[in-house]
């Protein structure tokens, strides 16, 4: 049997449970503040996932093609050089510029100031389109030793008739050529401008590995050893 004191103790405990439940119930103001936060945590897996933005790619660090130089060296002037200029005109649609010897070599019959070859320089969108064609001729394969430490690379084409739409012409003969590609990154003008010229920091210079990755991504090129 419970006495009057026992009934009083049970009443006090029941009163404490009711007050604790009232304190645990959030107010309408607290519910309004917690609503968007709770929804964000449920959708994104927690507050830190929502506060950390996705890391954007810095466009200033993206590699780019500065220019593509197509060169044919014939070692002499005259009719052979004229034919080489004609070949460059056919495959690049640009007029060739003659290259001049800067040395004298009696064994090779070369003297200073003598025209010994021709070249064409292609830039901007045309450079990328021409490079895509030449890489197709090479079956999208380049050797690792074709790259220098700053990512510039060169390779050769044995015959101009390997280009799409070109056929052998007995009046011209067979001409091969060298393709040199100069790579760059945004900001190169800082090292070339006349006023306030500055050297490009090492961290902003391209490397051979970065250019290889760029070629794999953009042109699906395979680099072999």
Descriptive report:
This protein is α+β, with helices and mostly antiparallel strands. It has one domain: 50s Ribosomal Protein L5, Chain: A (2-Layer Sandwich). The chain contains 6 helices and 7 strands; from the N terminus they run αααβαββαβββαβ. The strands form 2 sheets. The chain has a 5-stranded antiparallel beta sheet. A two-stranded parallel ribbon has the order 4-7. The N terminus is likely disordered.
* CATH homolog superfamily: Ribosomal protein L5
Shape: globular
Order of adjacent strands in the largest pleated sheet = 2-3-1-6-5
* CATH topology name: 50s Ribosomal Protein L5, Chain: A
Distance between the termini: 96 Å
Along the chain, the helix and strand elements come as HHHEHEEHEEEHE
| Structural domain count | 1
What is the helix content? 25-40%
Kindly report the average pLDDT value: 81
Count the helices. How many?
6
- Which regions have little confidence, pLDDT < 50, spanning 5+ residues? 1-6
Q: In total, how many beta strands?
A: 7
The fraction of residues in strands falls at 15-25%
Q: Rg from C-alpha positions? A: 36 Å
Main sheet? 5 strands, antiparallel
CATH architecture descriptor name: 2-Layer Sandwich
SS-derived structural category: alpha+beta
Q: Under the CATH scheme, which class?
A: Alpha Beta
């Amino acid at each position: 049997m419970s006495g009057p004191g026992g009934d009083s103790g049970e009443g006090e405990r029941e009163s404490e449970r009711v007050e604790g439940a009232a304190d645990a119930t959030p107010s309408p103001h607290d519910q309004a503040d917690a609503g968007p936060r709770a929804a964000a945590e449920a959708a994104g897996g927690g507050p830190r996932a929502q506060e950390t933005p996705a890391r954007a790619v810095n466009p200033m660090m993206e590699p780019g093609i500065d220019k593509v130089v197509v060169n044919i060296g014939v070692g002499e002037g005259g009719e052979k050089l004229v034919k080489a200029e004609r070949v460059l005109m056919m495959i690049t649609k640009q007029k060739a510029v003659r290259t001049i010897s800067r040395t004298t070599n009696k064994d090779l019959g070369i003297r200073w100031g003598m025209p010994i070859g021709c070249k064409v320089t292609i830039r901007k969108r045309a450079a990328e389109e021409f490079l895509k064609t030449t890489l197709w001729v090479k079956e999208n394969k380049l050797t690792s030793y074709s790259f220098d430490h700053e990512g510039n690379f060169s390779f050769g084409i044995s015959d101009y008739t390997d280009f799409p739409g070109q056929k052998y012409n007995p009046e011209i003969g067979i001409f091969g050529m060298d393709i040199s590609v100069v790579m760059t990154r945004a900001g190169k003008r800082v090292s070339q401008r006349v006023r306030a010229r500055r050297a490009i920091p090492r961290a902003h210079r391209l490397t051979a590995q970065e250019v290889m990755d760029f070629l794999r991504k953009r042109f699906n090129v395979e680099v072999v050893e």
